[in-house]
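lol so apparently i was supposed to do this last week
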Amino acid sequence: MECKDLLELINQYIDEEVDASVCEKFEKHLAECKPCRVVIDSIRGTIQLYRGDQPYELPDDVRNRLHETLQKHWSRPQEG
Ligand SMILES: [Zn+2]
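anyway here it is w/ zinc ion bound
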């Protein structure tokens, strides 16, 4: 799994709608990729603020911040 794949799955992951096998890959990526981990942590914090009994959708500003963070990460040359 790459950062882009993770980003696409974030909503499903948050809603706990991903398959167990996908979830495993997701978390494996998180274990190896610090920027994604930071993103997920901040999203989780946000969800706890927003989430009540209603279905959760990422607010636009969170989504934008997420894209910015990951794009910075992606635009860096790969090292090691
Ligand atoms: Zn990543």
